[in-house]
Amino acid sequence: MADETPHSAPTVAPPPSSQPLPPQTAGTQDPPAPESAAESLAETQKEEPPALEEVEKEDPPPKLAEKAEQSPVVVEEVAVAVVEKEETKEEEEAEVKGKLEQFFAHESEKSNPLASDDREPKIPQSLISFKEESNKVADLSDSERKALQGLRQLIQEALDSNVFSSGQETQAAPSKPGSDTKTGENPEKETKEVAEEAPKAGAGAASVEELSIWGIPLLKDDRTDVILLKFLRARDFKVKDAFAMFRNTIRWRKDFGIEALLDEDLGDELDKVVFMHGTDIDGHPVCYNVFGEFQNKELYQKTFSDQEKRTKFLRYRIQFLERSIRKLDFSPGGISTIFQINDLKNAPGPGKSELRLATKQALHLLQDNYPEFVAKQVFINVPWWHLAFYTVISPFLTQRTKSKFVFAGPAKSPDTLFKYISPEQVPIQYGGLSVDFCDCNPEFSISDPVTEVFIKPGTKQTVEIIIYEKCFIVWELRVVGWEVGYGAEFVPNTQDAYTIIIHKSRKMAPSDEPVVHNSFRVGELGKILLTVDNPTSKKKRLLYRFNIKPLSD
């Protein structure tokens, strides 16, 4: 990938007599958490396998916005040290043209003695990048608006006839010779055909049925449109198929007992397997799925050893999903999808039959009953066997589904996450500065922005924090993977004053704590110097943030 210039000057100066603003980071975020690497593919709906086709590489998402207005004072000597020349467009394109085979060779080097490429792994770029469609009716095409209107009409008629309470299951009718096959080509015709059948299913009903899904009462406000658009998009705006899917989902929810499940106590053994943490740069809530937790044999047996345990696991996942969905914003301009991260580090391989069986069960439920709830599927710490599996099934995935996938091997996982999520929102275990879901950080919160600085190979970087008043300053800093030297000192403004060593310079090893926390009570004006020495041949990413509290007289 092309070298990146730092998003802000590394020198910061708090303004006099005021609390300085930490470096600014602009952050503006289908079902979450499949139960295995393969299950993540369940987000797609059932569709005919498309023919192989030429696809574009994924456009990189918007970079984290520059950390603006960090300080009115910038020391140019420091700034120059971190400004990096951008590579040419040709170099950038060449870097992302890696094939899956190249990625396999790099990531499976230990298990494949023939692998000899020492370059950075080639992440499989794909695919045309998925961009979420608008849920505002005014932004829909004419045919899409007609399809939405038709589906609303069918649901209203079904409610009037109590169709959703009947035991009859709706199936999408097979295409007849000469029938419409293009997406939403004739929604009015489809609406009429289904409308003729709907009253028959609920014949003899005495009262009008009221219905809600994911906590949203149907046909009461414009949030219904957002929900119905999910079903329509899952079925290419074919009204009849979308209605069949919707009706069967309602039936399944009643049979599965979703409303009662929400309040059921299923224990906390899987709290580290799947959890929500922070948002991406677009505001989507982020769901982490940590499959390596199942390397714990006791947890694996307790979760998958027999059908009863697998059923409980499935109910736990559906419960977690339902609770997460109900926190989404189903207004037309709101966030109604989830950003999903699948951590495959130490994940059980494809030989685990119990996990495969649980995955198969979950696949059917997720693809049939939770359409279009995933904004992006990011796979990190991807082993070679998963990429090989993906290569096999890729021709049978729809372009829409593949456009949501992003893969990263262990070496590139933090960088990949930072493309989509601000460092202050990324948990410490994944390279960021956000404490995990069960800890707390009294000095910083997830809303305190982080400054990023890139350090070239073989160079030293110094960050200055200029102090204008007596204060207490606290900061935290990390370099992912360390292998760099770090030191901190305070230099008073007074001539001939002694420099105070806050953190003696030493080499930080990968085994050291991932984040360094320092603090200092400043009794005179001066500056804090944070120095990071990168002796390696790799570019390093420095993350830091600080807070200052003025001392009371």
Structural commentary:
It is a single chain. The chain is 28% helix and 18% strand. Strands 3-4-5-6-7 form a five-stranded mixed β-sheet, with helices on both faces. The chain has 14 helices and 15 strands. The protein is an alpha+beta fold and 553 residues long. Among the domains are: 134-160 and 211-256, N-terminal domain of phosphatidylinositol transfer protein sec14p (Helicase, Ruva Protein, domain 3), CATH 1.10.8; 259-421, CRAL-TRIO lipid binding domain (Phosphatidylinositol Transfer Protein Sec14p), CATH 3.40.525; 451-550, GOLD domain (Jelly Rolls, Sandwich), CATH 2.60.120. A hairpin with a 5-residue loop joins strand 3 and strand 4 (285-290).
* Architecture (CATH level 2) name of the domain at 259-421: 3-Layer(aba) Sandwich
Portion of residues in helices?
25-40%
On the 0 to 100 scale, the average pLDDT is 76
Topology as H/E string?
A: HHHHHEEHHHEEHHEHEHHEHEEEEEEEE
Distance between the termini: 51 Å
Strand content: 15-25%
Q: Could you state the oligomeric state of the chains shown?
A: single chain
Number of helices: 14
Q: Care to count the β-strands?
A: 15
Structural class: alpha+beta
Write down the overall geometry: elongated
Provide the low-confidence segments as ranges. 1-9, 15-123, 167-183, 198-207
